[in-house]
Amino acid sequence: MKAIDREWIIKKVLLVLAMMTVLGIAMIIFFVVKESIPAFRQAGLSNLASSDWSPESGRYGMLVFFTGTLATSLGGLLLGAPLAIAAAVFLTQMAPRRVKTVVGRGIDLLAGVPSIVLGWLGLTVLVPWIRALTNSTGTGILAASILLAIMVIPTITAISKDALEAVPRSYREAALGMGATRWQTIRQVLLPAAKPGILVAVILGMGRAIGETMAVALVIGPATVFPKSLTSPTHTLTTKILIDMGESTGVQRSALFAMGLVLLLLAMGMILLIRLVTRRMQPVR
Amino acid sequence: MLRQETRDAGIAVLLGEGVRKAEERAARYDKAATWAVWSFAGVAIGILAFIIGTIFFRGITTALTPSFVFGKPQAIQAGGGIWPMIVSSFYLAFLTIAIVLPVGVGAAIYMSEFAKEGWITRLVRFGADSLSTVPSVVFGIFGMVIFVIYFGLGYSLLAGALTLTLLNIPTVMRTTEEAMAAVPHSYREASMGLGASRWETVKKIVLPSAMPGITTGTVLTVGRIVGESAAIIYTVGLFVRKIPTSPLQPAAPMAANIWHMYTEGALVSDWMRVANGEAAFLLIVVLVLNLLARLLAKVYQKKLGTKEAR
């Protein structure tokens, strides 16, 4: 009887620990919403959704930063996803074992490089290159996209690799057996079969790019206007929050939390998207 | 008659020619694609080598001397060191691990050993998934509001550790669950067949067998904490002169201090040198932790392997 009681207590304690995840996300949502209420009340939705950020005259528009977030992450995906998917194909289909270990570990290691370190390298190496090549400040969407591409590669590679490995061996053998070349097998059989998984990989990469702060903050500009080109300064949601939070009060501070809320919504959107994709691929299994 | 035959033969030749051409094209594509994919992989590795090479080279040639690593930081003069920043990074990492490990491992035990699939597990998974997609800067401003201001902890190691605990619960949970899933079911059945309760089985059989995976995951989590910056800038602090001694004191982990050097750079003339040195040191720490994780996994594997062989 006593043993059962102890088991019961332990089970409940473990349940409480597991519920910490739910409590955590609930608290984050609650506090971010609560802190952003003054912005919605006093500035209003149309003010917040405008592209005019000038707190001194009561304008708290975040459209420029939202655009910056979308542009940099799409740019990062455009550059990074093909490389990452190629790396996954390489690792699962082409690489000899030795090369596979080296490349695989290298890409794992890339995931461990702290974003501030990558940003620092971007600021001191990449930005001067772009500046010299394009005769501009060098900071902006292009530099941020290149850094984000490097950062999404490990995420997309790892998950695409799992997806490619999950394709039944028989598919590959059947295609090769019918006389298809390796590339035909990869393009017409393996990649289509692994498509949902690769899609999830790309969405998660997008999530990582949207949330990335430090690396982007060091190379984005900053400026509070739409960029005139890919190499002129601008801002993203994360970098604006990071740079302004220390010195903001009142409605301005609240507007920064509203930007955090937008980021939260984007993150939740990603999760829903992934659930949709994985649900649609389940019946096939 | 004859014409018909010649025509058929002609068609056969043409068809053969077509097939041959298609095959040749396929072979050419295959070669080109192989070449392209190899060079893509080469580019990826090239980028990595370039990053590590540049950071190391610059760090070692411009900054990393004993007097820099073990020296006192300077706020307005050149020639400062980073010892308190190094200590801050590790202090923060161990404090966070001390909190996140029991929570994450406990949650994982619940999910993999006790829970039945149902709305509770779905809710917990949703919570973990959500936490792992929240941008780190949002963790940062949340931590600032609740731990720094609301709980009155101020900029402190504890406020940062609590923030980073939330950030790292999903990964600790996932690595632990994976490690526990790798423990054969027969172990559990054998233990419970001998009359052990579920918790005794977890404590004496499942956890010890899952230890290698949990340890490796923990080492990698330390690496992630040491490298994290956006979540700690508004919770832990950016610059200190002295080594922090209590969890309630502010600290300046290297990652945050690099940001400080960039934003307040004009204050010290050699700010680039300090940032270079910290970047190199951070990268070294992450590399060493990665190697350590791999090494530990190998050692454990050997140990378990020999045990089974006996």
Automatic annotation (TrEMBL), chain A:
Coiled coil: none annotated. GO terms for molecular function: phosphate transmembrane transporter activity. Pfam families: BPD_transp_1 (PF00528). It is found in: Cell membrane. Residues 66-274 form the ABC transmembrane type-1 domain. CDD domains: TM_PBP2 (cd06261). GO terms for cellular component: plasma membrane. Keywords: Cell membrane, Membrane, Phosphate transport, Transmembrane, Transmembrane helix, Transport. PANTHER family: PHOSPHATE TRANSPORT SYSTEM PERMEASE PROTEIN PST, PHOSPHATE TRANSPORT SYSTEM PERMEASE PROTEIN PSTC. NCBIfam families: phosphate_pstC (TIGR02138). This is Phosphate transport system permease protein. The lineage of its organism: Bacteria, Bacillati, Actinomycetota, Candidatus Geothermincolia, Candidatus Geothermincolales.
